[in-house]
Amino acid sequence: MKFSVLIANYNNSRYLATALDSVLAQSYTNWEIVLVDDASTDDFFTVVEPYLQDPRIHLFHNDFNHGCGFTKKRCVDLADGEILGFLDPDDQLDSEALKVMIMAHQQNRNCGIIHSTHFVCDENLVVKRVAEYVRALPENTPYLLLNDGRIHHFATFRKSNYLQTPGIEATNLRAVDQDLYYKLEETGSVMYLEQPLYYYRIHPGGISTTGKESETAIVHYAIVRDRCRIRIAALKKQSPSYNRQMIKRYRTRYFKISAFYWSRKGNWFYCLSHLLVYPFVGGASNLIGYMKKFPQQGFGLLKKSFVSNYEIK
């Protein structure tokens, strides 16, 4: 069973060799690297050229800078393996990562996603902690009802499952991975491995440190709203009476996320209109719990909800 390691690169020559070396060091050897460069302007090719002697490493170039969604979609389209997983060019895999994931997929063929947790590291890949936000889904709770970043690196999936989805949206510049996870969970169950298999580097210039978290949150909220609408429509088509409770849960989520979405967009009229409807579509208990927290947390709670990087990692 071949594993396709997917690397979408743009101007990461400083770190790319470390990522490539971590794949070469895998105990599992039936792999390929699909490396798509999004028209980098740094010394990318100087770094990658020596690695191209290995026939398992395949390099592709975009004709111009298309962005994250286009490049990641192309990675998947070009992949030849049964099992796929993205490795960011500034990160690193544990040497057992592919072996562990291959075994997990062989033993759990009904899974749409199998993901592990990861190490959070500094700029030099010195481990600071194990990510606290990556964890298993609660029973009978789809990820779309949480969208809190708990599915994260190292996330892997079968290409056959991917082909059952609409695929990565090529025009998305942000929240590309989360959008993919929502689509993949519609093809099978989600399995969590409580084992760090990935080293996630935090550094100046990384997406988590570029000051564009608000833009990412807006895109993420829009994605969640769209997927909620799609799932509600699908459930109604299948059996409205049987799926009534799940339809209610998705509708509740839709109105909650819509309030956050419109607040980020600065449209307070739409934000308020969705908040007013929210208690009547199943959000009353959630709203009561929120109000109980307010005396202790005050405006800090409002800032977390409407200003900070809410529900996205």
Tag the structure with descriptive keywords.
single chain, about 325 residues, alpha/beta, Spore Coat Polysaccharide Biosynthesis Protein SpsA, Chain A, 2 domains, nine-stranded mixed β-sheet, disordered C terminus
Question: Could you walk me through the main structural features you see in this protein, from its secondary elements to its overall organization?
Answer:
- The protein is α/β, with parallel strands linked by helices and 313 residues long.
- The chain has 11 helices and 9 strands.
- The chain is globular, with a radius of gyration of 20 Å.
- The protein folds into 2 domains: 205 residues, Spore Coat Polysaccharide Biosynthesis Protein SpsA, Chain A, CATH 3.90.550; 94 residues, no CATH class.
- The C terminus is likely disordered.
- The two termini are 31 Å apart.
- Strands 1, 2, 3, 4, 5, 6, 7, 8 and 9 form a 9-stranded mixed sheet that branches.
What name does CATH use for the topology of the largest domain?
A: Spore Coat Polysaccharide Biosynthesis Protein SpsA, Chain A
- What profile does the largest beta sheet have? 9 strands, mixed
Helical proportion, percent range: 40-55%
> How far apart are the termini?
31 Å
Name the CATH superfamily assignment of the largest domain.
Spore Coat Polysaccharide Biosynthesis Protein SpsA, Chain A
CATH architecture of the largest domain: Alpha-Beta Complex
Please trace the helix and strand order, writing H or E for each element: EHEHEHEEHEEEHHEHHHHH
